[in-house]
Amino acid sequence: MIIALVGWRGGTAKTTTAVNLAAALLEQDSMRRILLIDVDVRGSLMDFQAGLPAVEFARISHELLKKLPRDQYDDVLIDCPGSPDAILMDSVFSISDQVLFFMRPTYAGYVATCGLIESAQAHKIPYHVVVTRFEMRKEKHRKWRAEAWQSFPDNICATTVRHLAKFEDAEDEGKSIFDVAPQSTGAIDYRKLAKEVDSWR
Ligand SMILES: Nc1ncnc2c1ncn2[C@@H]1O[C@H](COP(=O)(O)OP(=O)(O)O)[C@@H](O)[C@H]1O
Ligand SMILES: [Mg+2]
């Protein structure tokens, strides 16, 4: 399955999710062949290459996506840049089986996600929305996650990825949360998200 990871700007946890979803999928099945693609020229995905030796990494331009040898992989995750242009999105959507949109639980995050959903609907591509960096103690976060649940109930992931400072430590070490803090809420959330992603097959 090819999944495009798309957010409306940087900092929505796309790269973090590419890395940790791959690690979670591998934890479930160590034989799984996973490719992580960075189509963001300024992206930081490749910084995790050494930390995830069982995963394949590639940085390629979107023109080359069509030539992807998809039968060589069980899962391909495409890490897209923040505010991607229409040409890039066209080529990413044309080869993807699913799109995963990233929503920060804020007003701006919610509005932007509504716009992204329209683009997926225009392409007639199945999509899901995942809320990331969620802080339960913030009323604003609870409000905008609830708004998303109400607005797109069939497409919102049951998994919310909670805010956890350890993600930054893992990023600094170029590792997944499963190496740095395997019992943390972060590891629990990505295990749950991986199960959900598996159910889309
Ligand atoms: N659930 C989380 N809790 C706390 N920090 C997070 C979480 N997810 C990502 N981060 C941090 O937020 C920053 C942006 O995440 P990143 O995945 O690089 O976003 P993007 O790829 O969408 O630009 C990084 O420093 C990352 O470590
Ligand atoms: Mg990124």
Defining traits:
201 residues; alpha/beta; Rossmann fold; 7 strands; 20% strand; globular; binds adenosine-5'-diphosphate; binds magnesium ion
Written account of the structure:
This protein has 201 residues and is an alpha/beta fold. The protein has a single domain (2-198), classed as Rossmann fold. Helices cover 40% and strands 20% of the residues. The chain has helices spanning 14-28, 86-95, 107-122, 139-151, 166-173, 177-180, 185-198, and strands spanning 2-7, 34-38, 56-59, 75-79, 98-103, 127-134, 156-162. The protein has a seven-stranded parallel sheet with strand order 3-2-4-1-5-6-7, with helices on both faces. Strand 5, helix 3 (107-122) and strand 6 (127-134) form a beta-alpha-beta unit. It starts with a strand and ends with a helix. The chain binds adenosine-5'-diphosphate and magnesium ion. Adenosine-5'-diphosphate binds at residues 7, 10-16, 44, 82, 132-133, 161, 163-164, 167-168, 171.
Nutshell version of this structure?
The protein is built from seven helices and seven strands, in the order βαβββαβαβαβααα. It is an alpha/beta fold and 201 residues long. The protein starts with a strand and ends with a helix.
Identify the overall geometry: globular
What is the fold named in CATH at topology level? Answer: Rossmann fold
Largest sheet: 7 strands, parallel
Widest β-sheet, arrangement of strands: 3-2-4-1-5-6-7
Assigned CATH architecture = 3-Layer(aba) Sandwich
The tally of domains stands at 1
How far apart the termini lie comes to 7 Å
> What are the distinct ligands in this entry?
adenosine-5'-diphosphate, magnesium ion
Strand residue content = 15-25%
What is the arithmetic mean of pLDDT?
96
Give the ordered list of helices and strands.
EHEEEHEHEHEHHH
Give the CATH class.
Alpha Beta
Q: Structural class of the helix and strand makeup?
A: alpha/beta
Quickly count the helices.
7
CATH superfamily: P-loop containing nucleotide triphosphate hydrolases
Uncertain runs are none
Number of strands: 7
Cα-atom radius of gyration:
16 Å
Helix proportion range: 25-40%
